[in-house]
Amino acid sequence: MSATSRRGWRVELDSVWDVLGPFPVHAREQHFLSPAYPLELSLPISTTTQYPTSLTHSAYASWSQTTADPHGTIHVSHPSVPWNQIRATEGWAGLQHLNVLHGWLSVYPPSDVTGDPSEPLLRTELLQGAFFTILPPPDSLERKTGIPEWYYGNIYTLERAPAQLVKLPVSPARNKEGTRYEIIICAPYEIRLFGDPSAYSSPHPILTLNFSVSLQFTCSPTPSLETGRIQFPIEDAPLRHVLAHSITPHIVDGTPFGDAVGIGVHCLDFGRWTEDGQGYWSVVRARLVPSSIHLPLSLSVALLDEVPVRIAPTQSRILPLQLSISAPEKIPEEVKQLDVELTCVPFTLLCQPNTDQNTRNNAQPMIQNTFVFRATLPLTHVPLWTREQHVPIQASYFFAKSMPTVFSVKPPKGAFGDSQTVLGQQDRADTSKCRGNEPILALHGAGADILTQSFWADSLLRQTYAWVVMPQGRTAWGLDWHGPSTADAFAAVSALSRILSSSGSGRWIKWGFDTDTRVILMGHSNGGQGTWYMASRWPDRVCAVVPAAGYIKSQAYVSWCMSRFAHFADPALRAVLDSSLTPDDNDLFLGNLVGKPVLALHGGADDNVPPWHTREQVEILKTWDPNADVTYHEDPGRPHWYFDILFNEHVQAFLDRVYFSLSSPRSVGGAPRTNVLTNQKPKTTSFTLTVAVPAESGSLNGWQIQALTTPGLLGRLRVTTTPDGRMSVQTTNVSVFSLDADVRAVTCDDIKKATILAIDGDDVPADLGDTNLFVRDTNTTGFHRKASWKILPCTDPLATTTHRLCVPPQRLQAILSTQAPLTLLVPSLAPCPELSAALRIAHALHLFHVLDAQIVSVSEIETTHVPIGIYEGNLVVIGCAETPLVQRWLERAGGTWSYADGTWRFGAVRFERPSSAILFCQPHPYDVQSVALFLQSTDTSGLERAVRLFPIRTGVLSPDWLVVDGRADMIGAAGVQGAGVYGWTPTDARDQHTTGEWIWNERMSWLD
Asked: What digits encode the pLDDT tens for the residues 257-269?
């Protein structure tokens, strides 16, 4: 592969690749191992050296070669490995393995060495690979002393991926011979991603990946522009419009179906990137450009809340714009696009402190340096739906306050507002029953792109009064419908409610539903797993469940039998690390679905997710309650996916029963007044709520666990209620729980009259209000002493602000569940290792989850010009340990973690081994609803390790805090020096800023 630029530069990628492997690993183990495992990159690479492996007959892996095609596609396989023998005992997990690829890249400067002195970056793309790095020439000093920078690959082959720009590790020689660089690719074969070899008729696994490279040049110096003059997009512009990242709602009969619009922008001003703040641009204004076609006078586009958006050199961001139009105006169908003018200014002009009023009022300097360019947003018009005809509609909203997000919907046949004759007004008002228009929240399978593929929408039944909502889950893979993917799904339902109720003309109101409505959860494959997950973690938000071909959990789907670190790790360490996966283990939480109607589906010949996964989950649910309303339907001989797995009569019959049966239970109110199976009123009801992470779980029948006694262990509430309102609660590992009496009253009308509540065998006087908070008396706990409970009065600050309970997140992955764009804090905006780490993390957040991130320096926060957004949304602190700002934050957090004399300490324990990555969560310094992740290290090599351990994917072992040293390169997670889940104490429950301290947790921590 060769590419030549108009400036005379040329890059060549050798087509021959050296391959070393296979090596046994479990899924995601490459995040702990060196991506070059088993190579030592500080030494010259010898392709004659063999390395031990258990997968070959000789017990050694030798180098082989493969050739990429002209498009960069590479096939890797090892047909001599006895795969059938391994699979016979280890199952398809035995086919999972790791390869390392070694290749060559040559860069040739222009022959005229006196020409353009600017040095290009490499524009790279790695598909279906985990990581890659570009190494200096083997004989260079930098090769012996430098630390490789590893870049994320697009392992899922996600569409609309942001551009990945890579700086050459050393400048190419300015001669005709050019410079040769080595490329290392970490290439795992993950069964979940690439499938069983039998699916593509191969007797052995074949890994197909693609690596391509071209040259990307910086922009030319921006010319001075006159006021109001527009500069159209050109090759040398500092900002480029990325059309693939554009986000617009469909225009339904002339009205936008949502007000969120996104314009993708990529910053290419990296040529001046030598000083703090140089090359950064802020978009400060957006407006519609007049069109030759008459636009409605009220139609406008503006930056959301008029907040500027800053883009770092090489970074891609999606600008949040708000689209508005006033009724009765409509966008004419002949308007196929909107042209938006974006005004941009250099960062230094926007944020530079200036106290001189006259200078501040003089706009000329900003005008002289203003860059204005135009972006085009394509519009798609669709007709208004009718009972007989419809098309899927793309809707938009702002996720996490300012991230433009789209989802797809299928409208119902009729308007629920016209359904008075179908459901009597009295029945519809009874909250113990389904109203009949609860939306179906349909979760797609892994790799399904709802924006470009129609099969998912086509395979879902259109309902009488219920909308079918198809969220993205952030991307086609997302986070397996956990974390931000769950939030996106529920938020899409609320967004649709707002869209229907806020249409200016009011013509869609009768099609609407309550913003906080419950839903029927439905999904296939990964979406089926997500259906089990979301329903069992948020049971009061769900009225029925239809999972199809969903696996139980990742470890059951693809076992860890080939794990490398398991051969070296202390079992106690494994237990602590495994606790970070407990919240994802669906089987542990299926008891929360007792009382919910469940229709579980599977194809009998499924070769992707074996049918026993669904059968097992049905059996577990029946173990919790033999009378559980769960039905299992298996289609004999059908594969993993078939069009009518959800599009059939028995699914519709189940939905009709849920929607229109007078005995349909309202789960927000708990167990039904009338048992669906026996049609008899129960005398006593009981249920068990199981929770792993309170922040990732909701209520069951109004009861909610707010905090655990020992975070990292399961918490349970066993609740028994008699018809007269007497309640008995048995707790396990619970320190704070709450009861929404209004919700619970649906199953017991006299609950507010109850004066005695038995908790763990003791009667607790109860004057139950709307919301009640029960707190364990920590002064009475102990091995031989029984805990006592108290109900906080409704006037107590803690009782009315349970969201302020600052409990530990229990795993680093919580950083992805942000309520606003993430902030990545670095020591300086000038090039440095921390900034490189921030840019790569920002790229990964965009690539894997389309999560937005702003990069901010310490000095900006220490001055009065604090970037907007730092006070909300999750925070990642990269380095900065010696700064007074971060020192104050650590002290405010309670001093559990500290940094002094160049060493990090957790209490009295010092972490100072070379190449150590130190990752730990802390309370956000400004927002109790957000969390901070400290990404620290003992040296540059440790920082690289920390970047690879950033919890961007599911299945990575990462509790609240984690310290990993250089041993991990060869033994994976066994190279952990310390790990744990914080304990929590509500000592400062009355403080206005915090409601608890994160402390050492003896039961759930491990130190080497």
From this structure: 999 999 999 999 9
